[in-house]
Design goal:
Chain lengths: 254, 394, 532
């Protein structure tokens, strides 16, 4: 009991015994997961393992039927909505890159800045020098400085992925949830993305990466959690997990 | 409001638009009043009132464009806010009649005497004062929009669902205002106005002033909308329109933004209605008819949604066409024309007149857009609509 | 009144004692009526009632209708029939015309009551059982003690069950109010009235005043309470029936929408116009039958149903191919375009058939009504309910078991997968939309039976239909069923309290509030995919 408490309070993200079902289909089944502050975790699992649903739960899009979801050891995420959770400092990149296509790249970043998000503050908002500099930095990091005035909708798939990661950076959250960041990227881009994520992680940010691409996961070199049918199947280094019989069975079929 | 907001909102096309509105708002009344009747350049009073009606419709169209074009909220009940503003003004005008009515009752309007009202209903109190009526022009639509929007946006009713319940809202009001015991004149509405602020409502001078005021309201409304859409709030609105849930995950309280812009838009529609009533001389429950609201939406679609100028232009063009057609030998075919307009604009001219014009004029933007497979507005409309087709999980 | 009663009783008793032995009283009465003085008239009515003469009822009936003319000179009476022909009242023989001196026999209010009672008494003995029941009912209402001997006499001979029951009830009413009836008689009477249990019985018991034994007062109060309870129950049942009927109409109008909006996700604002077109198909079918094959009129609806399905369905396919398929994924644009379409269709019908209501008749098997306990059920509403359920079941079965139904479900669930399995998705889209439109057309046939057939017919249903689909939950036919009947019944139960218009407004407000709680309706699908 005592151990659990310390585990819960010292963890940045703590999921315990979470269940979700949609019309009788158990998408998440007794899922428990703990992330220490500053940790980077890769989550793998076959289609339908519940990876995206897990992210939906953390970000408040889906409410679990039962179970505990704690952030920073004290905040009960199941009681909050998406907006509140985002304000707490949880950022998310979606599986399908979701950027504001009819606005420029710069505006996309500007919208993501973690400044006053209330209606009045936004109406009378003026970009300060500091904020302009932040946008500049992010643009450089994601290598889109030259095309800053282009509409986000005109970017290639890989560029959109980067823009979305850039939006995460502008948001400056404590916890980043990154869903399939390298889907549709070339090998070079994949490599660059891995470097970028590692760099973000070095800034003492906690990162959760959901990815299918095993080369990419290997490159990250972090602890891996394998989900299957909404529950944790195996956890450990990439080599441990890929050597696990049950993981092999799940991925290759019986 | 800081000056910064104003300067930022005035680009070249906005300046041109404002100049045109100012020119029309000044020259038309002057020509009506100063030139001799029958002169080639004299604008007859009936024509000025007709244009005044168009200007009010243009304000209504602006208010619809603000929420539909920039925030993706398709209201099919904006006529209700327009009519509420109109009723608030109509109530003031009724009280101004005083004992000059047919029944000569100094307090009760004619229809109340006719319906055997013994005393003024409480909700008619205060409408003998112009400032109170003017306040109500904003408050009545604003409060309705706030209550309705608060309920709808908080529970995330979006897309066609929202459109349908806004239509139900105006339909319910239509039924209510048709009732005699509701205290707003029932079927006949409010009419036979005599004067406004002591000026005879029929006189050329009053009409010219009302027209000029309508143009002023259009200009102010336009500036306000520009200020909103060019601010960061405008970017948030577009973000909500294109990807509502994404905006939420960035930490924006989407329902507050929608509520803000919905109430603002409803108040604008109320002002449009209030200016409309003294110029046409009547307000009746027919203004609540769902058909009116949806017709106003097509003005915006014709002009080009999300352009503001297009909304105003569309309102004037469509209504001018309506006047021309319904007064001539082609009257029976007007509804065919209007119906065809709905279909053709959505099929062939989805960006409207101004949007298409912009695409021609800005080859740079066009090139950017050409790279896209699909129009983002269109795509987002699908994503944000309530009836997303089921997709395979993961 | 007691004076009047006494006289009538006297006259009646006299009749029964002396019967119609001498021919005098009838002729006397005729003569006295012809003097046209109020007192003579009253006495004459009594004598006529007692005379047993076949002309007595026609004479008093004419008197009641102000069609009895008297010629004081010749002491003759004439009856003017409603179509202006004259008969000699005493003999019943037709005459060419009444003398110019003849005037209408006058009545005052007191006499009018006497006349009514006399007509009642006379019809109690009518050879037609239905009229006897009617007369007994009116005696039940007036509980005129003067009628008691006639009732007793009639009851003894009565063989018709309905008339017999009516006589027993009338007798009970009289006994209950008769001052000299015994206590057990009165208690028995109360039991009989309680068993009758309708509004009339309640009114009768409520009217019971004067010096009554305590047991009778108590018994009447109990009976009244019991009747009130059962009446409340019946009124709930009646409301429930009205609600079911309205629900069936809503379901019929919404069920096609549940296909196009619910299953396909296409919002068709011209749906109401498909209903309207179905109604006009019925009109055209009936016109053709009227002019060419009058004998087929009773089958007109059976002919109209498949025709309306075909016409509206084909139109639906054309609309889908011509407009809607270009707008998939753009629901708001679809909404606007189909609204424009609805304007065009309305105007087209208006220019073809005129803006006014067109007459669509009910076949004989759909007109009339029957009573079930205390509630009235009209045949057309009942048929529409049955028809709606049949359409619902057929549609459900079609979606579940037919190959096109299977294809439809496949396409809605996963378009790309369905296409790769070799399903012609665009054909399925057109057919699905055609099916929804065709069902709207069928709805039009049914609605033509209870609503005005005008170009605006569809508009009055479109908002309600959308409410039903939204309330029931999109993409679920069962939801539409439950939604339609819930809204129908709720509407009818609200109406007595709030009035029709406020009731409707209340329903709209309730739905808006309901959407707060369950934004996706009663039977919403849950899951990540839907919420994406």
């Amino acid at each position: 009991m005592n151990m659990m408490d310390t585990k819960a309070t010292s963890a940045l993200l703590y999921l315990d015994g979470v269940h979700v079902s949609f019309d009788g289909f158990h998408a998440i089944n007794n899922l428990s997961l703990t992330l220490a502050p500053g940790e980077m975790r890769a989550i793998i699992g076959p289609n339908g393992a519940g990876k995206t649903t897990m992210m939906d739960i953390i970000t408040g899009k889906t409410k679990p039927d039962k179970g505990e979801v704690l952030f920073d050891g004290i905040v009960d995420l199941t009681k909050l909505d998406e907006t509140k959770i985002a304000e707490l400092g949880i950022g998310r990149k979606f599986q399908k890159p979701t950027v504001f296509e009819s606005q420029t790249i710069e505006d996309n970043l500007l919208l993501s800045l973690n400044v006053d998000h209330r209606v009045r503050g936004t109406l009378f908002w003026r970009k300060s020098r500091d904020e302009a500099a932040r946008i500049e930095r992010v643009l450089e990091t994601i290598r889109l400085t030259d095309s800053r005035h282009m509409l986000a909708g005109s970017l290639s798939h890989g560029q959109k992925q980067w823009l979305e990661i850039g939006m995460l950076l502008a948001q400056d959250p404590k916890l980043l949830l990154v869903d399939e960041p390298v889907a549709g990227m070339t090998d070079v881009e994949t490599h660059q993305t891995a470097e970028l994520l590692k760099e973000i992680n070095r800034d003492n940010k906690t990162v959760v990466v959901v990815e299918h691409d095993m080369t990419f996961v290997r490159e990250l070199g972090v602890k891996v959690t394998c989900l299957h049918e909404g529950t944790v199947l195996a956890e450990g280094t990439i080599d441990d997990v890929s050597a696990n019989d049950r993981v092999v069975e799940v991925y290759l079929g019986r | 409001m800081t000056p910064h907001i104003l300067t930022r909102s005035l680009d070249r096309s906005a300046m041109i638009f404002l100049l045109i509105v100012a020119a029309v708002g000044i020259l038309l009344p002057l020509s009506n009043l100063l030139l001799p009747a029958g002169s080639m350049f004299q604008v007859p009073t009936y024509l000025m009132s007709l244009f005044g009606k168009y200007v009010c419709y243009a304000i209504l169209a602006l208010s619809i464009d603000l929420i539909w074009g920039y925030c993706g909220i398709l209201s099919l009940g904006h006529g209700a806010f327009f009519a509420l503003g109109g009723y608030a003004m109509g109530m003031y005008l009724m009280r101004q009649i005083g004992s000059r009515g047919v029944y000569g009752n100094p307090v009760l309007p004619d229809f109340m005497v006719f319906l055997n009202y013994k005393e003024l209903p409480w909700y008619w109190y205060g409408f003998d004062m112009f400032w109170f009526a003017a306040l109500m022009v904003l408050v009545a639509p604003g409060v309705l929009a706030f209550c309705f929007g608060w309920l709808a946006f908080r529970s995330r009713v979006t897309g066609v669902y929202l459109s349908i319940i806004t239509q139900a809202m105006t339909y319910a009001l239509l039924l209510a205002f048709f009732r005699n015991d509701f205290g707003f004149g029932g079927n006949n509405g409010l009419t036979d106005f005599k004067d406004i602020l002591g000026f005879n409502i029929q006189s050329d001078g009053t009409r010219a002033t009302l027209f000029a005021l309508s143009c002023l309201a259009l200009a102010v409304g336009f500036l306000m909308c520009r200020a909103v859409v060019t601010s960061k709030l405008g970017k948030v609105l577009i973000a909500i329109r294109d990807a509502e849930s994404r905006t939420r995950f960035l930490g924006y309280r989407v329902e507050s933004y929608k509520l803000f812009v919905f109430v603002l838009s409803a108040c604008m529609a109320g002002v449009a209605g209030a200016l409309y009533v003294p110029q046409v001389g009547i307000i009746n429950p027919g203004e609540f008819a769902p058909g009116n609201s949806i017709e106003a939406v097509i003005w915006v679609a014709v002009g080009g949604r999300g352009t503001l100028i297009g909304a105003a232009l569309g309102a004037v063009v469509v209504n001018y066409a309506k006047t021309v057609f319904t007064s001539g030998a082609l009257a029976p075919y007007w509804l065919f024309m209007l119906g065809a307009l709905f279909i053709l604009v959505t099929l062939l001219l989805p960006k409207g007149i101004i949007g298409t014009f912009n695409d021609w004029c800005e080859p740079n933007r066009l090139r950017n857009r050409a790279k896209q497979k699909r129009d983002p507005i269109v795509e987002s409309a699908a994503a944000e609509d309530g009836v997303t087709l089921p997709r395979p999980a993961e | 009144m007691p004076d009047l009663l006494r006289r009538l009783i006297f006259v009646l008793l006299l009749t029964f004692v002396s019967s119609a032995a001498h021919a005098g009283p009838f002729e006397d009465a005729v003569a006295r009526l012809s003097t046209d003085s109020f007192s003579d008239t009253e006495a004459a009515i009594g004598a006529l009632t007692a005379s047993g003469n076949a002309q007595a009822l026609p004479i008093i009936g004419a008197l009641q209708g102000g069609r009895l003319l008297a010629d004081s000179a010749s002491k003759q009476l004439f009856i003017k029939s409603p179509d202006g022909k004259f008969t000699d009242a005493a003999t019943g023989a037709s005459v060419a015309s009444a003398p110019t001196s003849a005037t209408v026999v006058r009545l005052n209010n007191r006499l009018r009551r006497v006349v009514d009672a006399a007509v009642g008494t006379l019809t109690l003995l009518s050879p037609d059982p239905a009229r006897r029941v009617q007369a007994a009912q009116s005696v039940f209402k007036t509980h005129d003690a003067a009628a008691l001997p006639v009732i007793d006499g009639a009851l003894a001979k009565e063989t018709n069950a309905a008339a017999k029951r009516a006589f027993i009830e009338a007798r009970a009413a009289i006994l209950l109010f008769k001052p000299d009836a015994t206590e057990p008689e009165k208690l028995e009477a109360i039991a009989t009235i309680k068993a009758r249990g309708d509004r009339e019985a309640l009114a009768l018991l409520t009217g019971l005043t004067g010096d009554q034994p305590p047991s009778v007062v108590g018994g009447a109060a109990n009976a009244k309470a019991a009747i009130e309870r059962s009446l409340t129950l019946w009124s709930y049942l009646q409301n429930a029936w009205y609600g079911l009927s309205l629900g069936s109409v809503l379901l019929l109008a919404a069920i096609g929408l549940a296909i196009t909006f619910g299953v396909m996700g296409v919002i068709n604002m011209a749906h109401g116009e498909m209903v309207m077109i179905g109604a006009y198909v019925t009109f055209v079918v009936q016109e053709v039958i009227r002019t060419s094959y009058p004998g087929l009129f009773d089958y007109s609806l059976l002919i109209a149903v498949p025709l309306a399905f075909l016409v509206a369905g084909l139109l639906g396919v054309v609309i889908e191919r011509g407009i809607i398929r270009f707008l998939y994924g753009r629901p708001l644009e679809t909404l606007l375009a189909t609204w424009g379409l609805s304007l065009v269709l309305q105007q087209a019908i208006r220019t073809t058939f005129g803006p006014t209501n067109r007459e669509v008749g009910n076949p004989s098997w759909m007109s009339g009504a029957f009573e079930l306990g205390q509630i009235t059920i009209t045949y057309n509403r009942l048929w529409i309910l049955c028809f709606t359920m049949a359409v619902f079941v057929i549609l459900l079965a079609m979606l579940r078991y037919s190959s096109i139904g299977l294809e439809m479900r496949a396409v809605t669930q996963n378009r790309r997968m369905a296409a790769s399995m070799g399903i012609a998705t665009s054909r399925v889209d057109a057919l699905t939309f055609g099916l929804g439109s065709g069902i709207a057309g069928i709805a039009g046939v049914a609605l033509s039976q209870i609503d005005n057939v005008s170009p605006n017919l569809g508009q009055s249903y479109i908002i309600d239909s959308f409410m039903v689909v939204v309330f029931g939950g999109v993409g679920n036919l069962w939801g539409t069923l439950v939604g339609a009947f819930t809204l129908g019944i709720a509407n009818k139960f609200l109406e007595p309290f709030a009035g029709a218009v406020l009731g409707k407004i209340a329903i709209l407000v309730l739905i808006i509030l309901f959407i707060q709680k369950r934004p996706r309706g009663l039977f919403a699908l849950k899951g990540r995919a839907i919420e994406a």
